[in-house]
Design a protein that fits this description.
By secondary structure, the protein is mostly helical. Helices cover 64% and strands 3% of the residues. Helix 2 runs parallel beside helix 4, helix 3 packs parallel to helix 6 and helix 5 runs parallel beside helix 8.
């Protein structure tokens, strides 16, 4: 049997080499040949040959392909395929094969730098996560993980892969009108069910557990293969979540990102997966343990800021009473009261209200740290200088608290004098 398998493999490889030959019998595998062919008319066979070539050629070949804008051409094909009207049960084959080619490039440092530096490449790869093919979806997730952790590979680039990935996921969320960022990622992380199969067009497809037809007579090999494919996708997805949340050096940024996932019910989904015996010894279980360990570590680090308080910080009534007592003799008490009143008017049962609460939490968190700048999502872009904001509010001059109290007291006395005068 092994001899037959080896012979079949050699036959396939020989045919692939023949497909690369032109009419004159020469091997058409130069970077220039592929660039010109992709620009003229990209096809599945051409992309398949390119993928095999990318995986086998030396660095010099890859460098020439990159210098000829190979990455840009491939991502342009992806973008054009994404713009086509989507039809149910139709696999975007050209896009998927391009993603395979980009993955082959990304395994090399030179290729990974090219992907990061190519304008729009990360976003176009990110948008490919919509593919119905689970294997391609997994490749997209693997590439996003590589982008997030690119700083660990000491690449010859100043591009921040983590920042690019966040921007791409944010654009994806806005484009798909998601109520909260990362909703699509968490939504696709579902516990695999043994009978979650659906037969369509004579093909067996893995579907969400709520949209399937039960076929218990499927061969065991098919069931195991589908399980392994879905399990690898979920493992990579949790690895991406860990990469997103663990890269920032500031604990507040890490906690802020992790909270976005927790609000979407990630903790409950992971608990469901974690307590299933099938996942006890898998890589998915390892990724879940990593998420929980890093969550606890960051919570402990944050907890040190409140070590002087003996109250239960999870009790909103006690926190409010402590804050009220703390500010009672302060000129900031009226601001505190005004903030509490305004918060009462923000709804918590619609999209706009929830977004407002999250934004308020983010801004107040950054103010509590007395940062020099504040920003959305804790990122480095779209930030504002705090002193500039103070100037807008007429607070550019720093004033001693006691001095401010004295001015308020003097104003109150002056008012009493005017009132008592006949």
């Amino acid at each position: 049997v092994s001899t037959q398998s080896t012979g079949k493999w050699m036959y396939i490889q020989n045919n692939r080499k023949k497909n690369l030959q032109d009419s004159e019998g020469k091997v058409s595998s130069t970077p220039q040949y592929f660039i010109q062919s992709l620009q003229a008319e990209p096809s599945l066979s051409l992309l398949s040959n390119l993928r095999l070539t990318l995986a086998s050629k030396p660095v010099a070949w890859l460098k020439t392909f990159i210098e000829l804008d190979g990455v840009g051409i491939l991502t342009d094909i992806v973008a054009k395929d994404q713009e086509k009207p989507k039809e149910p049960d139709v696999v975007p084959e050209l896009q998927d094969e391009c993603i395979r080619c980009l993955r082959a490039l990304g395994t090399n440092k030179l290729g990974l730098v090219a992907l990061l530096e190519c304008k729009g490449a990360v976003q176009r790869i990110c948008f490919s996560i919509e593919t119905p093919t689970v294997r391609i979806k997994t490749i997209v997730l693997q590439l996003l993980v590589a982008f997030c952790l690119s700083h660990l590979r000491k690449l010859d680039t100043k591009i921040d892969g983590h920042k690019l990935t966040l921007q791409a996921l944010t654009q994806y969320s806005l484009s798909h009108r998601e109520a909260l960022r990362f909703a699509g990622l968490v939504g696709s992380l579902k516990l695999f069910k043994d009978n979650a199969y659906q037969v369509t067009s004579n093909k067996i497809d893995l579907e969400d557990s709520k949209n399937f037809t039960i076929h218990k007579d499927l061969p065991a090999k098919v069931q195991n293969r589908k399980k392994n494919t879905q399990n690898l996708k979920n493992t990579t997805l949790v690895a991406l979540i860990n990469a997103i949340c663990s890269v920032p050096t500031q604990v507040d940024f890490r906690v802020s990102l992790r909270k976005e996932f927790l609000r979407l019910g990630l903790k409950e989904i992971l608990e469901e997966i974690k307590h299933d015996p099938a996942y006890e010894t898998t890589d998915l279980g390892t990724q879940i343990d990593t998420f929980e360990n890093e969550l606890r570590a960051d919570e402990d680090e944050l907890g040190q800021r409140f070590e002087d308080y003996t109250i239960d910080l999870d009790d909103p009534m006690k926190v409010t009473e402590t804050l009220k007592t703390q500010l009672k003799e302060s000129v900031a008490y009226q601001s505190f009261l005004s903030i509490m009143k305004d918060l009462m008017l923000i709804p918590g049962n619609n999209e706009l209200g929830i977004r407002s609460w999250i934004l308020a939490e983010s801004l107040i968190n950054q103010l509590s740290l007395q940062k020099t700048t504040i920003s959305l999502y804790g990122a480095n872009d779209r930030s504002s200088d705090l002193q500039s904001l103070f100037k807008v509010q007429g607070m550019e001059h720093r004033m001693d608290v006691n001095e401010l109290k004295q001015k308020v007291s003097d104003s109150e006395k002056l008012c009493l004098i005017h009132i008592s005068e006949p």
